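W.,

You were right to be curious about this one. When I first looked at the sequence I had no strong expectations either way, so I just let the prediction run and decided to look at it fresh. Below is the sequence, 243 residues in total, followed by the output.
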Amino acid sequence: FASRCTDEDELMRAVYNLAVAAWGVLLAGTVAQAGDFRGQRPVAVYDAPYYNWTGFYAGAFAGGAHGLWTIDFYRNNNHGHAEEGADGVAFGLYGGYNYQFANRFVVGAEVDLGKSTASQSNDIFDNDSSYAKYGMFGSVRARVGYAFDRLLVFGTLGVGIANLTNNIQKGRNAGEQVVWEDQVKAGLTTGVGVEYAFTNNWVGRGEYVYTDYGNVTLFNRDGNRADFKNELHLLRVGASYRF
C-alpha cells in the first residue's frame, strides 16, 4: 500500500510539473508576441488626393488645318457658286490659366497664336481661277471642363482672328479680278478637347477647334459682286508645362 501511494504521488508531481512547464511556455510566447506588436509602428491608410488643375500653363501645338472657302460670284446677271477646300498644317503656341472647384469642375481662359499653311487654287466658273490662303491666326477663349483626376474633358468658346487672302481672276482681264489679300478677319471660335497630366507639370492635349470668320462682300471694276465666306477647322495635339 505504501508503495502504491508513493507511485501515485510521483505521478501527480510529474503531471503537475508538466502542466507548469507548458503554462510557462505559453505565457512566454504571449509576452513575446505582445512585445512584437508594441515594437511595430501603426501604418496610416488614406486615399490619395486628386490631381488639381489650378494654375498657369504654357505649351505648343501642331496638327492639321482644313479651310472651307465659299464664293458666290454675280456677273452680268449670272450667279456662280463654288465651295473649295484649303488643306495644310498648323502649328503655334498657347497658354492660359485654370481654376478647379471642389466639385472637380474646371474653368479657365486661354490664348493661342499660330500659323497655317492651308491654301487652295482652283479653276471655277468656267475660265475663272480662285486662290485662298489662311495664314497667321489666333484666339482668346474661355474654357469649361470636368476633371476625372488626371484626365480633363473640356469645351471652349471665344473669338478668333486670322490673316486671310481671297482672290478671283477672270482670265487676263484685270476688270474681272476680285482681290482681297492679307486682310485680318475676326469670328466665333468653338471647340472640344481632352487633356491628360502625365506628371504634375507636363500635360498632353488633343483638341478640335472650329472658327467661322464670317462673310465678306467685294465688287470689282466692272461692278461684279463676290461674296466670300471663310471657315477654318483645326485638329491638333499639344503639350504644356504647368507652373
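Here's what jumped out at me. The first helix runs from residue 2 to 39. And, maybe more interesting for your project: The longest strand covers residues 78-100.

Coffee later to discuss?

I.
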